[in-house]
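Bug #2210: C-alpha cell dump truncated for Troponin T type 2a (cardiac)?
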Amino acid sequence: DEQEHQTPDVNFAVNVCCFFFFFFNSQLCLLTQPPPHFFIPRPFIMPNLIPPKIPDGEKVDFDDIHRKRMEKDLTELQTLIEAHFESRKKEEEELISLKDRIEKRRSERAEQHRIRSEREKERQKRLEEERARKEEEEAKKRAEDDAKKKKTLTSLHFGGYMQKTEKRSGKRQTEREKKKKILSERRKSLDIENMNQESLKAKAKELWEWMHELEAEKFELQYQFARQKYEINVLRNRVSDHQKTRTGKSTAKMSVLKRL
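Reproduced locally. Full output below:
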C-alpha cells in the first residue's frame, strides 16, 4: 500500500527532472554554437508538461506519518530520560550508603582508639604504681642489707656469721616459696570450651595484652636484678678492701710491739 501511495510522488519527481535536463541541454547547445554575425533571440517555448495523476483510492496522510514519528521519538526520549534519572537516583543512593558506611567506620575507629588509649593509660598507671612500690621495697631492702652488712663487719665471731648465713638461706627459701605462690596465682586456667568466635577473639586480645604487660614487667625486673647485682659486687669489693686495711693495720701493730 505504501508503494502505491508513493508512486505519484515518484512520477512527479521524474517528470521534473526530465524537464530540467532537456532545458539545460538546449541552453548548452545554444551556447556551444558559433556566434552569427548578428544575434537573433529565439523565443522560449515552454514544453507542455502533464501533471502527474494521483491514482484514486486511499490518500497518503503525511501529517499522520509525521505525527507518528514525532510520537515515537518523544516516547524514546522519555524512556531515555527516565532511565537516566533512574540510574542517577541509584548512584545517589549508593553514594549516600557509602558515606554512611565511611562515617560509621570512622566512628568505630575513633571509639576503638579511645578505648585503646584508656587501656594504655590504665596500664601505664599500674606500671607506675608497681614501679613506685618496687622502688620503695628496694630502698627498704637496701637499708636492711646495709644494716646487716654493718653488723657483719663489726662482728668477728664465726658462729654469728654462720647463723646469719643460715638466716639468709632460710630467707632465700621463703623467697622461692613466695615466687611459687605468685606464679600459681598468675597462672590462669583457660575456659574456652564453650566460647563462641567473638568471645575467643576477646579472650585472645586479653591474653595478648596480659603477655605484653608481663614482658614489660620482665624487662623491668631484669634491669633491677642487674642493678642489684652491680651494687652487691660494689659492696663486696668495699668489704674486701676494708678487711685488707684492717689486717694491714693489725700486722703493723704486731711488728711494732715485737720491736719494743
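Output looks complete on our side. Residues 1-60 form one domain. Marking as cannot-reproduce; reopen if the truncation happens again.
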